[in-house]
Amino acid sequence: MTDISAGLDRLAIETPSWAYGNSGTRFKVFAQAGVPRDPFEKIADAAQVHAYTGAAPTVALHIPWDKVDDYAALAAYAKDQGVELGTINANVFQDDDYMLGSVTHPDPRVRRKATDHLLECVDVMDATGSRDLKLWFSDGTNYPGQDDIRARQDRLAEALAEVYARIGDDQRLQLEYKFFEPAFYTTDVPDWGTSLLHCLALGPKAVVCVDTGHHAPGTNIEFIVAQLLRVGRLGAFDFNSRFYADDDLMVGAADPFQLFRIMHEVIRGGGLDADSEVAFMLDQCHNIEPKVQGQMRSVMNVQEATAKALLIDTAALKAAQNSGDVLGANGVLMDAYNTDVRPLLAEWREAKGLAGDPIAAYKASGYLEKISAERVGGNQAGWGA
Amino acid sequence: MTDISAGLDRLAIETPSWAYGNSGTRFKVFAQAGVPRDPFEKIADAAQVHAYTGAAPTVALHIPWDKVDDYAALAAYAKDQGVELGTINANVFQDDDYMLGSVTHPDPRVRRKATDHLLECVDVMDATGSRDLKLWFSDGTNYPGQDDIRARQDRLAEALAEVYARIGDDQRLQLEYKFFEPAFYTTDVPDWGTSLLHCLALGPKAVVCVDTGHHAPGTNIEFIVAQLLRVGRLGAFDFNSRFYADDDLMVGAADPFQLFRIMHEVIRGGGLDADSEVAFMLDQCHNIEPKVQGQMRSVMNVQEATAKALLIDTAALKAAQNSGDVLGANGVLMDAYNTDVRPLLAEWREAKGLAGDPIAAYKASGYLEKISAERVGGNQAGWGA
Amino acid sequence: MTDISAGLDRLAIETPSWAYGNSGTRFKVFAQAGVPRDPFEKIADAAQVHAYTGAAPTVALHIPWDKVDDYAALAAYAKDQGVELGTINANVFQDDDYMLGSVTHPDPRVRRKATDHLLECVDVMDATGSRDLKLWFSDGTNYPGQDDIRARQDRLAEALAEVYARIGDDQRLQLEYKFFEPAFYTTDVPDWGTSLLHCLALGPKAVVCVDTGHHAPGTNIEFIVAQLLRVGRLGAFDFNSRFYADDDLMVGAADPFQLFRIMHEVIRGGGLDADSEVAFMLDQCHNIEPKVQGQMRSVMNVQEATAKALLIDTAALKAAQNSGDVLGANGVLMDAYNTDVRPLLAEWREAKGLAGDPIAAYKASGYLEKISAERVGGNQAGWGA
Amino acid sequence: MTDISAGLDRLAIETPSWAYGNSGTRFKVFAQAGVPRDPFEKIADAAQVHAYTGAAPTVALHIPWDKVDDYAALAAYAKDQGVELGTINANVFQDDDYMLGSVTHPDPRVRRKATDHLLECVDVMDATGSRDLKLWFSDGTNYPGQDDIRARQDRLAEALAEVYARIGDDQRLQLEYKFFEPAFYTTDVPDWGTSLLHCLALGPKAVVCVDTGHHAPGTNIEFIVAQLLRVGRLGAFDFNSRFYADDDLMVGAADPFQLFRIMHEVIRGGGLDADSEVAFMLDQCHNIEPKVQGQMRSVMNVQEATAKALLIDTAALKAAQNSGDVLGANGVLMDAYNTDVRPLLAEWREAKGLAGDPIAAYKASGYLEKISAERVGGNQAGWGA
């Protein structure tokens, strides 16, 4: 229990500011009551998640959605609420100029504009004190022949090099990959291999971000996790879950066993050690469920998967593996997975002065009713705001 | 050649009004110059596609996007432009009430509202003289347990029965299925089996609509086509193509060989016979390509695949099949596929007084420049307008 | 607990005789010590699974692999061992004549031969007193054009009709579907829709068999289960699990949450009611794990998933669903899933005089060592024997 | 035409000795008349493919399937037949010792045995004068927890390093990757990223082999080709095609447009230049079609795709790409693809003194009838022989 508790203590899960705004699909974005109208209100919501779970101490920002005049004021506000500002996310996919790409666009003018935005994000990092710049590019093509696959890689490399040169010694560049969407034929950073190749070319401060929903059907994500930890380039997770494509459901909702296996590899590879720099973040769309509660549920799902992974009897596992005892080794893993860790987590929370059941405590608090009443008028936050 | 020409004469491809408006992904809708601002302008654009290809004589409407006060006036306008109004598409996915479903919603009030909209669409059909009502439901759930899978089927059946009872003797109800999106756990009509079961329960005027992009990875669509023709329930196609999910690319763009195989099964099963009631429609999103030209290219892709399928030496094919000559039978099919049918299609067009190269003729016409200059101000059409 | 215990009492899981023989992939079949050499030894092994789990009272046979001169003797032997003979599985895929198909083959001679084998299987059923004939056809094609998709459906329908006419009033014909393999372009019964269409054409004694590994990537199997129960045609399960294609791993090994959701729909639709005729069978390949222990683990996995599904607070679930409480409804389901049911199952076993931990008891029994020592010489059973 | 002819002249496609033997699925291997019974007869068949196509000058060997006492004699025999010995393929998947892995096995004894076999294959290369050693490992696990994912990578790296140290200056080590099968949970070299990481660690003589059937559903293979050519590590292709998993159908049979796109990227990246070291090989299973004819058809399919790719108007393509003309750029590509290149290829063959229609000429030759009559008795070659 001590070890498990210590492991849980080290598990900090960053929530993204945009998860508190409205989101949806191309068919419809459904509005919800109480949704934030500015970055401050987003941070207030994020602080609730931390207040009840004790495991979500930082908030990721998205530029320009969370652009403010005074980042110091935003940081101070966050601190007052009990959280801190975290990763800065760049956005080079929502301007009409980016229809055919941003940093990989055939037109140098568009590439310049996109790269300048990335550099501006580093300025924001300097202002917020953020360690990480997370780059996701929607760049790609929809039709065979539309653009030159290889030339786009060269353009990407050039832009990344410029950004990499700009970040400070204590800052990192996270390069996220995604199988497809919004590009439907080629995507310029479609897999971990591509992301890693660029990171290796850049240098040690460039690391791969694994979004758990960004893979081809059937892909073994924990294998990728093990592989990236082995070469020292697993930078971060964007957690969410999916049944089909990039469904962006709450992490652990679609396949809790997979999440457990992923956390097992994280721990196995040192990703939860005291000196680990792996960042754990949520990135999902609460299209139909309440935002704050959805984030809380997600944080708890990661905690439960981690607690189960920490419960694995590693000595027994290794012994079974080395003796070729297929069912025995699998059984050791399943014993941990089949354990109900909710009591253990309630205990962990209570030891920290928190409620054992964060969801019940949050619902009892009346926060949702309060913000629903207060946040009337103005523009609700969403993608693009 | 005579047979091929006759086959092509029977191939009428309906284009959808919404394809002329802006479309996009959840990340961004990119605006294009010259995009229509009302149903009349959409019809004008659709008429261009028909004027140059000679194969797109009707336009599908989407209610409420194409709602007008006077459908007779809209029909007359279409006739003036050289086209006619076609299938009526219902929309029960863009109202906040439909967040958890429309006709399958747990709340009877929402179901009533949704069904009423479907009935209203039949009123529109009566006004436009349309034969077909096409129903696609975005209904489904995102999380296990969210709703009762089976109860939703019962609710769906109830709503469909009410609509079926309302349509006239010469009208049809097309029930479209879709693998997933925007629902990410269950979809209430996810596959052809479900659609067919409901059609069988309703009666002979209920038919299945096959959207070529709405299947699980690897699904053999031509098999489904053969199966539905065999039981007399293939009602219509929504054509588009995809590499990943429901990418909604131009039909024939991602896998032209698949489109050829589909058209081969259509012809094999009588779907292009003189008395066939199979409707051929486009339903795709031109996110990054010009709209009118994209529709023209799509119509031509269907024509090319059909011409190749009509070229198959069916006697030689049957002989090879019956003798178990695997490579011989495959070779007969490939001989047709490998033929360059573009000269043949140019000839067919020229025999009708059209330009042999529709794209070149359209580009030379200056139509895009004209509408780009004229259609300034107002709200561009798109999903939701 | 009483209800759960009663539900578990009704859960009888049939194990297949061939699971006790060697199996493998196209690359290699690895031989294991102690593998049976004839149907009697297979039954002896199957009896072990029942002896320790108390939940596997019948054994499925595969003809001709389990062909014997005297089925009454085989049945009597089974009874002595504490089990009974169950479903008869036909095999029309391992004769050189079936290279291009069996009942769908273009050559009537081959079709006749295949249908005769099916009829012979009904003779075996009469001799063994089996209720179910399970039909799986490997029939399909590898290359476009190789054979006529629709003609093959007609041939299939003809053969099925002949077999259906032959079975008795208390017998059933189960038609299994499979997405692909060993055919790689078309498969003649590839999905539940095709299987159901044939069953509907045959009559009420024809039912669909759902093999949990036989679907396209991403397919929602519990939806199919709900759908088939709704129309009264869910005949049976072939349980196994998969990460990729038809991997045939132990059921519950790849995605225990999916198995739980499936059992929830089974229960919701009455499939575990006292009068249910749904058959629960294992059909998997223990390529690298010990056979008997692998079957035991699988039976226990189904029991655990069922126990969790029986634990669902259905009143709370319905209330949350009806009020549109997405996270609440999902939470009710997850509460059951997250419960550790192993103590409950141990109790259930002990109440029946069995060991609480079947695997430990079996391993302690020395059975594997015994058969490994005894079963030397002769030909080990496997696919084709 | 001159350029196209020169490009085709450089396109040498290696055929694999095992393609001439019987193959099948885990369900059944169907025997065919005339199938070779030893390596010499395989080479005689391979020589036929070259004799008629003029494009298949070398034959890959598989050790131990093609083990002979005197490789010089085998090489001389090949030369007499008009072909040469090519790539050496290792086999560490068909010994009972390899049930849980070969070079990644937890037991050092098994790893030693496997590595020794790889070293033995280099001895064979020295004897045959082969440039390439192709390594494919079936290694992986079936169940979560079965073995340590990361430790297996370390063991793999160690074995590869030993082999790499053994190969000569003019020899190469090709590392093939495969998504899954025969392992069904993890595969130790599942993707191009893993293969490339190991190659980078080894040195410049280690290159990636791309098998076109070894990817997750939806994977964009031409992107991988472009990426590997960009970093100078595309070593070879194993050509085949698939609709589902690793179906191993004839290359170009399932998706001829994809093959064209792949060859376009090969040419774009210099892979068909005079100084290119990219090896083009077939690796497919002719389960139901005649072997020699199947190989011929495959060679021709690659030639047709290559000829179309060579026809692309690269200047027009680049101009359209750079101006952001999506449909124009796609149109340039499609113009080449839609061209019927069969006359051009017939001309190319006739200029070399070959028949314009290789299949017809081969069938007229009576070779299949001859070997069917002669090759009676003995054991037909297949996987494992």
Automatic annotation (TrEMBL), chains A, B, C, D:
GO terms for molecular function: L-rhamnose isomerase activity; metal ion binding. The keyword Manganese applies. Pfam families: RhaA. GO terms for biological process: L-lyxose metabolic process; rhamnose catabolic process. Keywords: Cytoplasm, Isomerase, Manganese, Metal-binding, Rhamnose metabolism. It comes from the Bacteria. This is L-rhamnose isomerase/sugar isomerase. It comes from Actinocorallia herbida.
